[in-house]
Amino acid sequence: MLEVIGLSKSFKALKAVDGVDFVLNKGESVGLLGPNGAGKSTTIQMMSTGLTPTKGQVLYNNSDALKNPKQLRRDLGIVPQDIALYEELSAYENLLFFGRLYGLKGKMLRSKVDDVLKLVGLFDRKKDRVKNYSGGMKRRINIAASLLHDPKVLIMDEPTVGIDPQSRSYILDLIRQLNKDKHMTVLYTSHYMEEVEKLCDRIYIMDHGKVIASGTKQELQALMEKEETVWIEMAQKKPAFKDALVQDPTFLKVTESEQGYKVIAKKRPSLLNDLFDYAKIHQVEPTVLAIQTPTLEDVFLHLTGRKLRD
Ligand SMILES: Nc1ncnc2c1ncn2[C@@H]1O[C@H](COP(=O)(O)OP(=O)(O)OP(=O)(O)O)[C@@H](O)[C@H]1O
Question: Does the keyword Transport feature in the UniProt annotation (predicted)?
Fold first, then answer.
């Protein structure tokens, strides 16, 4: 349905996006996951024809959308990262304004505005001025604005950043509903892997302007087949214990949290015993020692050596 091939964008010497290939099939919910600065926003700005690529193609239904952007623009709903609403106007008036930009008018426009207000759960608050809304409510109006013209493809740029948990869960449910019930194709950009894991059929992981891995959650986890993730908790952490693990090349990555350490290690029958041996040497008494299924965070760490939110 929507495909980008070899998409690149340079800002002077900086390669913000570097040869990205990417397919969005009809009805799919696809996640674009990557840390800040990975190139996600720049990619989606180019695929929605808002920014001209330095190189590459954007195809919509197999035709060149950079040369003929009309059909894609008509079918596309975009929720940008920055909220752009008129604070002094009510939510209803804001949506009337955006609806007119899409060419809607009269009764049709008013009924569409009511529909999208109901969808985002703010129909009862439609007469309140936007300046009195919470950040999460403003975000929901932003999403409502992107839905006024019944888009076939919805592209969302980190729509849950910095908002209250109630709005966050409302937005996630809404996206699921738009995708599963209304069969809207969704591209969801985020650096929260748990959102992408829950919402998306397929995932692209981006880092430093490139797609470094893609697939279903299971396919991405399979990248770690030769490794295992072990979680160790203890009453008191010992830096010398951690240092010893870090120095052992069979432990590929050791990260620390409040209660203990997460270790990505080469898979082997002796793994837990090896860890117990180190614990004994350093007089560490583990309260939990558990082998875990890798998360997308682990996959990311494995592929890049960095945490998603570094
Ligand atoms: N207009 C611009 N001019 C110069 N550099 C830019 C511009 N837009 C983006 N960049 C740079 O390109 C890189 C990729 O930015 P981009 O916003 O696409 O990343 P992102 O993955 O969306 O991250 P974030 O979650 O922070 O938005 C960054 O280093 C950013 O500073």
Answer: no
What pTM does this model have?
0.81
Q: Does ligand 1 have an atom closer than 6 angstroms to the CB of 45?
A: no
CB of 49 sitting under 6 A from ligand 1? no
Tell me how far apart the alpha carbons of residues 10 and 164 are, in angstroms, rounded to a whole number.
Answer: 35
ipTM confidence: 0.94
Domains of the chain: residue spans and CATH? 2-221 (3.40.50.300), 225-293 (3.30.70.920)
For ligand 1, pick from 8, 15, 41, 212 the residue to mutate: most ligand atoms within 8 Å of CB.
41
Report the percent of the chain where pLDDT is more than 90.
66
Residue ID of nearest Cα to ligand 1 atom 12: 16
